[in-house]
Design brief:
Pfam families: AFG1_ATPase (PF03969)
Number of helices: 13
Number of domains: 2
Distance between the termini: 27 Å
Helix content: 25-40%
Strand content: 5-15%
Largest sheet: 5 strands, parallel
Order of helices and strands: EEHHEHEHHEHEHEHEHHEHEHH
Shape: globular
Number of strands: 10
Strand order of the largest sheet: 4-5-6-3-7
CATH topology of the largest domain: Rossmann fold
CATH class of the largest domain: Alpha Beta
Mean pLDDT: 83
CATH superfamily of the largest domain: P-loop containing nucleotide triphosphate hydrolases
Protein name: Cell division protein ZapE
Keywords: ATP-binding, Cell cycle, Cell division, Nucleotide-binding
GO molecular function, one term: ATP hydrolysis activity
CATH architecture of the largest domain: 3-Layer(aba) Sandwich
């Protein structure tokens, strides 16, 4: 990052480029990153704001509190054939739409838990297996009191089997599991692959979770439906440079090319310590693979609370109707909600 003189004579930093950022992330670093994202470092059940129009949100708070209080319950086998009806299930699963506070509740539970504990997205855990290998991942995570999995989504059969096996081993050794998703556990993978061929794994996961439905409207839009803000090309460079803190400026297509070369688990390194990014020439997606990579990138931007300034097509209009009608609809809508917040500066 360099420094230049602004028209008024003051000094300001020149934006860097996402393409120049280091994306190296080893297995130990990946484990160290398994903590709640920045905006949830102080999350608690006391500062969760339930919507009174949706009693299920208040019920979820009570259920999380009860799950935390029962953390000393004896471990159970996630995939055992027998289970006492009186035995508390080792997992709790929050199912609901985006923006209803599921991640806040999950982070609150993580903060309440004692001992060694981990918090990560579904893709971070599967990437950890890829980096360390399955056996070493089990060794690294075994003994944890709590494993929190945000946005539990099964997009392919391999992930289904992998997470079934991993969670089974961890729970058998005493680890409790808490997860969030936009999809009930017995419907994971629906519309994305032949889920009926993998019902054994999916049902094994679902049967061991206490599932809670968390209803509500997107908290980011309770007061304002909003749209993603667009900045004219001729103003974009100056506005990004005026942001207080490290920034980057790149063409949209260049960023998509970068995301295709970097595993999504490493996107966190692209946004680490940034205050804002600039995207020039945004346009609608034509390939679903690019769209899904960008969704994963948006999640990391939102976790790190990195502001987005963009020109071109509004970022809430980049997912075409045929994509929104498919199996990844909820992912795209969640990304749109977050992009509206990130471009409008409504960071939480």
């Amino acid at each position: 990052m360099t420094v230049q003189h602004s028209p008024d004579g003051s000094l300001r930093a020149t934006p860097g480029s996402l393409l120049d950022r280091d994306t190296t992330l080893g297995g130990e670093q990946m484990v160290a990153h398994l903590v709640p994202p920045r905006q949830f470092l102080a999350a608690s059940l006391d500062n969760y704001r339930p919507d009174r129009d949706y009693p299920s949100q208040g019920a979820a708070v009570a259920a999380i509190r009860n799950f935390a209080a029962n953390s000393s319950s004896r471990p159970s086998r996630l995939f055992g054939r027998r289970k006492s009806s009186e035995e508390a299930k080792p997992g709790i699963y929050l199912d609901g739409g985006f923006g209803v506070g599921k991640t806040h509740l999950l982070a609150s539970l993580w903060h309440m838990a004692k001992g060694r504990k981990y918090f990560g997205t579904f893709i971070e855990y599967t990437a950890l297996v890829g980096a360390l290998g399955y056996a070493e991942t089990v060794v690294a995570l075994r003994g944890a009191t709590l494993l929190c999995i945000d946005e539990f989504e099964l997009d392919d059969p391999g992930d289904t089997r992998l997470m079934s096996r991993l969670l089974g081993e961890l729970v058998a050794s005493g680890t409790r599991i808490a997860a969030t998703s936009n999809t009930p556990p017995n419907a994971l993978g629906e519309g994305r692959f032949a889920a009926q061929d993998f019902l054994r794994e999916i049902d094994a996961l679902a049967s061991r979770f206490t599932t809670l439905r968390v209803d509500g409207v997107d908290f980011r839009h309770r007061d304002n439906s909003g749209h993603a803000m667009v900045i004219p090309d001729e103003e974009l460079d100056e506005l990004v440079a005026d942001v207080d803190g490290p920034t980057t400026m790149d063409d949209f297509d260049a960023v998509l090319g970068l995301l295709s070369r970097v595993h999504p688990s490493r996107y966190v390194t692209l946004v680490d310590e940034l205050a804002a990014i600039g995207l020039r020439g945004v346009h609608a997606f034509t390939h679903q693979t690019d769209a899904l990579r960008f969704v994963a990138f948006v999640d990391r931007l939102y976790d790190a609370q990195v502001r987005v300034l963009a020109s071109g097509t509004p970022l809430d209009e980049i997912f075409p109707d045929d994509m929104l009608a498919g199996g990844y609809r909820k992912k795209y809508l969640r990304a749109v909600s977050r992009l509206i917040a990130l471009t409008s500066g409504q960071l939480s």
